[in-house]
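Below is a typical protein record.
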Amino acid sequence: MRHGGRILADALAAHGVGRVFSVPGESFLAALDGLYDLGIPNIVCRHEGGAAMMAEAHGKLTGRPGVCFVTRGPGAANASAGVHVARQDSTPMILFVGQIARADRDREAFQEVDYRQMFGGIAKWAAEIDQTDRIPEYVARAFDLAMSGRPGPVVLALPEDMLSAPCDTPDLAPAPRPVAGVSAAQLAAITDALAGAERPLVIPGGSVWDQGDADRLARFAADWGLPVAAPFRRQHMIDNRLPQYVGDLGVGMNPKLGQALRQSDCILSLGSRLGDTLTNGYDLMNPRGQGRRIIHVHPDPDEIGHLWRADPGIAACPRAVLAALSDAPAPRRWAGWTADLRADYEAWQTPRGTPGAVRMERVIAWLTANLPDDAIITNGAGNFASFIHRYFRFKRAGTQLAPTSGSMGYGLPAAISAKIHHPDRTVVCIAGDGDIQMTLNEMSTAAQHGAAVIVVVANNGRYGTIRMHQEKHYPGRVSGTDLANPDFAALARAYGGHGETVTEDAGFAPAFGRALAAGTLAIIELRLDPQALTTGATLDEVRAQGEAAQGG
């Protein structure tokens, strides 16, 4: 006989779970006891949103569901931010939520929530385990669903009396993964469609991607002379130094790459949903009249035809299709078209100077030139991230952890998760001053678990992205975007880490060296000029553009 918490822990161990992330609660004490019994490490966090984001980042890093435990009511509400990231980023994840005792349902008991309703719109599956003897069944289904088709989050609620009840149910072994493959007819449909194209573009996608996939994509693109454009925050899917890489499609994209997307007559999507961020809000291509042939390969058949009329549409694992394509002979080559797009990318890499003594373009250029190829870069959301997109060259798969959902505060929890999983690799979180303060309390988690992350804080004293839009649409009418910030370097020291403030470009490289040598969590605060707003315009320039648009 085992109580439900031990049955749950045994099920997690059977599915290869090596650690969980949590904020503990009295609603799942039996689960904590089960984790203790098996010695499964429990990374205790300071906020449920941070815990869920760490689990989501673990899913990106491993291709297996990251696991998070939170308590009922407020804990679940806080964790929903990480569930939303997992949904929009197509990341496998399982969130376990404590729940009230079954006998108290529908009385608005303390912290009672219907989790099927709460998470029904953002999780692949949200359920509640009512019977202790069904725990292995529910857990097995959760792992299968989190990884099947388009990966994503699953939420399971755990009534506390169900979890503490004894039971003699047997364990359930994990099912074998479905056999991935591509038929000869599917491969021929892709090559025939490409053969008729004059200006094709390859766009990979999805969160589950490893170095073998990156190598196969590079070989396929080189053999066929095809250009590869990464979706928003998926730049690590191919070595950016290769001549076939032509840039990223997303917020702050190279306008010439955007025009290439508009002009392309054939798109090979290998797992990308080709959504609004990639298409500049459907301005560059629109489902109402897509104006080009789309070869849409996606693991979820429901995505094919959801936005775009695919010709052909292939419901298959994009990684398996890529493996087949990388060994297939090219029907023709598009080396000239690819070389032109690469030249546009190289020109876009030339820094445009921003105002101030510390300039983000120089910081990012130093990082891309000096970090090891396997260094992991994380970020949340804000204008600061556009400098990463434009100037950093990702060299290996799994080195970019960034939310395609645009979630602020993601970078620090993701960095902590990455450093715990890869303690031997350099992990750098690049954050804005508003962005970092969404989850700054997780510095305590980093200190407790020895995660020696280096956080570079771009401090311009405002929510830069919102200020940019404010100046474009309501120039000069500033409300709610200025920030009073702490001394970030002093905060790092308060958490037992290393902290420095950089006020000029020349100070960054030695400061980074000291942060790395410290072997602890570290913050390097960059004091930016308030005029520094985007990679292409100052605050005053954006305001002038807004005034001109209104005057017109």
In short: The two ends are 76 Å apart (CA to CA). The chain has 21 helices and 20 strands. The chain has three domains: 2-167, 184-348, 351-551.
